[in-house]
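User: I'm new to structure prediction. If I give you an amino acid sequence, what do you actually give back? Let's try with this one:
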Amino acid sequence: MDPSFGNAAYTRFFDPSGFKQPASPCIQHSQLFQLLQLFGRHLRAMAEARQQGFLPISEIARALAQPGFVAYYQPDWSEDERFALLNELRQLSGQQVLYIDMDLQIFEDLKDECRCMLLPILLKPHFALLRKLATIDSLQAMIDLFDEPDALMIKQLCSEEELDNTDILHKYYERLDNFRMAEKLGLVKDWKHIYDTKDSALAADIWQLWLDSLQTARIKDNTATPRPIYDYSSLFDTRNLSFDEVIVLNSIEGQLPQNPEPVWLFNERQLERMKLKHYDLIRKWERYYFLRLLLSSSTVYLYAYRDGEKDLEPGSYFTELSHFLAEESNWSQVRRHTTSIQVKDEILGMAQRELAKEHDKAKWLSEAGIKNPASDIESFLRLPCEGEKDFGGQFRSSYYGLNRLISNPFAWYIQYKAGLKECELLPEETVSPMLFGNIMHSFLGKALHSIKGEQSDINALEPAFARQELTQKLEGILQSKEYLYKIPKNYNLDFLNEVMLQLLVSSVRAFYDKWLKPRLEGKSFRIIPEEVESQRDQEGYKTLLSFGKGDRYVLKVKGRADLQVNTPETDYIIDFKTGGADTEQLLFYEFYYHRHDEAYDRELKSLFWMVKEDKSEIEGVKKQDVYNDWISYIAVTLMSCLEAGYRIGITAADRKYMETITRADLYRHQNREAQQ
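Assistant: Good question. You get back a string of structure tokens that encode the predicted 3D arrangement of the chain. For your 676 residues, that looks like this:
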């Protein structure tokens, strides 16, 4: 007994052949309807884009999740091609791409970063079809595109099972004939007056209207099935019936008894006074039929559970029955059987069975000497370290890699040694912190390029920091191919242009007025932006420390700060931040640029310029012991990894890092290593 059983996700754990299916399933669950719905979403996405001719990769990912989508355009492709398509989409997502242009120019522009062979083949006919669908401005214009060779072939949208075993095509065209009457009878002469939209937005509105009309249709399934063992129903549909066996799923509050429905027109008290059905009366009926069903059946199973986070508790009927049966005197006509909960192997995931039964086959587990992960959780949550393989003769790292190793060695190994990266196939069309930071660094590089080198007068830099000049440079960056596919093209584009980009211009100008000019007035100086350091960056790494037995391993580092300013008296290191700042990054830059040289004796200052606050923060590291403690902590962490393996992070934020990496990613990595 569970009225939502047919649509619930947990039904996949049950053999469907044992359950009575609805005689007339809804067309909404068919492949035909879901693909039509997908086309509607793509039309809507096209309409909502501020820049025409782009589709979010999240919509492409959702399309690839439906086998019927690939089969419609490429019927000869198998699951192997579909997995290859998803891998190509992961490559694009790894480059922070949000959109694919409908001219497919992205695959030419990013050919060095992403090797996509199948996606262009699949998307070319799909985008051609979307362009035709976007011209729909009436019902007849939409119907004219159905079953046209160069447009939408309805029959090919159906699965083989739907064509062989149901009357889905008959019901589809029957609804279509009724739907077209709105225009034939002259009820609507111009749909633009109804929706007040045009182009792809109007097409999306008309398409959605057709889906709303179609979704209530029910199809007849002619599949010959054996007599089912179980039927599923609701409580009131079991009235005056008895069964050999009753299974009540979700015996929780809100389901049994049901939550009160929203009232309309009259409240519960008014309904009661007018002798109409009200919640208290319905609840009494529920209780009566619930107890009658249970007590008139031979065997009953009740399933309930608790979830404190979601405020879910066993229902009052379940609790009342439990209290009643707790008294031994009430068992005269009832026999109680206690059944231990067992989960069958066939509904456990393959990876879980591997760990539970065949863990000796997992190489890293056996090497760590772990025979029973559940009994040795501390060891289970550590990856074994192989010094020679992981660090070799020289261990090279950037600041971000080193910082990850210190805070979460487990995640460092997954990301930097195994080479696994988080990949979001359904990215939100927003200005992410990473995107904003990348725009900021590109902007700084271009803004500082014209003033790099030796300078004798700070006032000579005034034109380079003029608001109009800065705005023009920023606009040029946003219109470049580098960001064409990465910048959101929905309403967030307005926020980016009107708020965030103006913030960048104002902050760079504030940096000149509040920090640069006061410190360099009347002095000669040298400006060294990040792009100039790119050449020096190739010269090599700087040795930070040695570690391991006999100092057999050497840690070398390199990095690039956003800006250096050198005066006759002082060397400055400045890093611009759009988010949080960590003092250890300044320590890293101080070492890389100057402290590695034991003969260095000039005054050194480092600081963060906080873009959103228009101010400097953490100006310099005042004490030598802070620097020494940082070096010491790195050495301790590296020795801990060598001796005990890679532990997980200590703080909650560190432990959640890379939480989207799944077993599937690990299996893919394992297969790639095996093939190599």
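You can read the tokens as a compact description of the fold. Here is one thing that stands out. The longest strand covers residues 570-577.
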